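Closing statement on the S-adenosyl-L-homocysteine sub-project.
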Amino acid sequence: MVHFVGAGPGAPDLITIRGRDLIEKCDVLIYAGSLVNPELLQYAKEGCEIHNSAYLNLDEVIDIMKKADAEGKTVVRLHTGDPSIYGAIREQMDELNRLGIEFDDTPGVSSFCGAAAALNLEYTLPGVSQSVIITRMEGRTKVPEKESVEALASHDSTMVFFLSAGNIEGLANKLMEAGRPAETPCAIVYKATWPDEKKIVCTLRDAAQMAEKEGISKTALIIVGDVVEAGNYEKSKLYDKDFETEYRKAHGDK
Ligand code: SAH
């Protein structure tokens, strides 16, 4: 049995209880060493076989899983944040299906949630934006044309860019060329929830310069949109005293 587990964004106490329990019980642990906090390894039992997948290719990862499963061992595959976001889990799951090896998936706190928490930010402010676009700049991995930065920028939604901190200047330029004003609020969060977390609130115009000044070029998220600075949002309907819900009667003077 293989358990895919989300490790959370960094702080070791942001893994789920289920995820930690699975680490405590597993016989083999394969963790994404580039971004998973090594403090989580302390939950592994004595004698647990531990592999850092930063040094492995897909075939090697699958071989470790295959061997362990044949010996009746339990494997945890620990991914950073939530495994469903840029986690490259599908290709592993398809191989496991082919080999007839059972697996399941335990979610984790994605770094985009960790970054919002670091900023005390709400991505979906009424009257400002009700959508969050999670995307990335094109790198070695191609982005479908319809999902280009320029195409997605036209929605004026809140945008969260993963895997793009290496070219913040290029990103900001694309967004501005696509019509987002240079004053659009923007936040850059480096290593959200880690002890060396850094956060910058800026605008598209000065984002690249600010990031350079702080030495940020990787392991960061770039959040773009008026929610970063919005002062002119509308209050929620859910907690409006004049608004009835299934659970609460209105308290208005009607
Ligand atoms: N599955 C992960 C994302 C993996 S892709 C998740 O749900 O968060 C790796 C990218 O995620 C990094 O390049 C960076 O953009 C972002 N990232 C991961 N951890 C981060 C953190 N603690 N703070 C800021 N960005 C992070």
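The longest helix spans residues 58-70. With this model delivered, the sub-project is considered complete and its resources will be redirected to Aim 3.
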